[in-house]
Amino acid sequence: MLTIFCIFGSMFKLKTILEVVYSVGDLAKVQHFFCNYGGLTTAGKYKTDRSVLDFWNLDESAEGNEVLIQFDTHPSGKIRLVKYNNIDQEYIRSSQNPWDTGGIMDINLRVPEVAQTFNELRDLGWHGLSDPLLQKMGPFELYDILMKGYDDIIIAFTHRVQPPLELPEGYKIPSHVYNSSLTVRDLQLTKEFYADTLGFSILNEYEVNKDEPIENMFGIPMNMIEDVTCKATIFSLDGTRDVMFQACEFEGLEGKDFSDLAIPPNRGLLLYRCEVENVHNYYNSLIGKGLNIHQPLQEINIEPYGKVNCFALKSPDGVWWEFLETNT
Question: CB within 8 A of 326, min separation 6: which ones?
């Protein structure tokens, strides 16, 4: 069900997360992983338009090359790889742990067999934070493995056991980005920001506690796990589970804070691009709430969408969000 709002007679519709933008050091290597190994589709290759580089506050000398990747023809949850040139970069979440705050902690992709994926990815040079484990998260049971890969990112590869979920055959990664995780300092403040201010839907809330020293998917030492509670809230723009994200607070652990590094052109999972119908009305509604806008509404050129009206804001934990209206 699409989320439709009427603020003082001005209608807008929050639609979906179109893309996660991923800043990479080696464009060909990362594309090869998703497409040649995973079976995802290269939807297009582009040179980053100067209007976008200006929107990102990058120097005139900066350039960018992009590859847009999607699962089959799925219209949302795409991955846009960006390779920046002629500019200095840092890693967004260097040598990260899941309980470190700031930026995007991971993206989630479905796979047909987690144990097989785990072994194949280790042969490709990826590293797991644990061995594959059966997890219970709210109403779902799933096999899950967090893997560290290129540019210090983490990807969660999952297979849902209950309720059962059939996946298309013939792919190593038969999935768009259906979920992702943000680690936050204050979950209550985060809920107020996404639900009350931005108008996103809350799909589910849950807590994970371990009552004995046991291996866990986050790599938390077993002698500490009983003192840690992971609290999570799952959000969606449109109220569906097609593309979600979850905010997690690790009560009992304190890590590094990467909030100031989650900006272009730094390397790693960089930002979300979201589609809004009547984006002018949405923008004005947020201005009316007194929200601090990081980049004002303006026209930029993003292929393959063409010229779009777009604005950007940052979450309390430094996550960069872009909202735009496409012509499709």
Answer: 18, 275, 305, 308
Residue whose pair of structure tokens reads 């069900």 in the numeric block: 1
Return d(Cα 173, Cα 120) in angstroms, integer.
12
Query: Beta-carbon neighbour count of residue 144 at 10 Å?
Result: 20
Which strand (E) or helix (H) includes residue 194?
none
Is a pLDDT exceeding 70 seen at residue 69? yes
Across all residues in the chain, what is the average pLDDT? 95
- Asked if 36 and 124 touch (Cβ cutoff 8 Å), the reply is no
Closest CA to 217 of 161, 157, 276, 269: 157
Q: How far is CA 271 from the centre of its chain?
A: 7
Q: Exposed, middle or buried: residue 195 (CB in 10 Å: 0-12, 13-18, 19+)?
A: middle
CA angle 279, 201, 242 (to 5 degrees): 85
CA distance 35 to 48: 21
Residues 56 and 106 sit within 8 Å (Cβ to Cβ): no
Residue 36 makes CB contacts below 8 A (sequence gap 6+) with none
pTM: 0.95
First to last CA, the chain: 19
Whole-angstrom distance, CA of residue 223 vs CA of residue 229:
14
1 — pLDDT class (breaks 50, 70, 90): very low
Furthest CA-CA distance within the chain: 57
Whether the Cβ atoms of residue 112 and residue 159 lie closer than 8 Å to each other: yes
At residue 151's C-alpha, the angle toward residues 42 and 27, to 5°, is 30
CA–CA distance, 56 with 63 (Å, rounded to integer): 12
Spatial distance between the Cα atoms of 240 and 177, rounded to a whole number of angstroms? 14
Task: Determine the Cα–Cα distance for residues 142 and 131; give it in Å rounded to an integer.
Answer: 14
R_g over Cα of the chain: 19
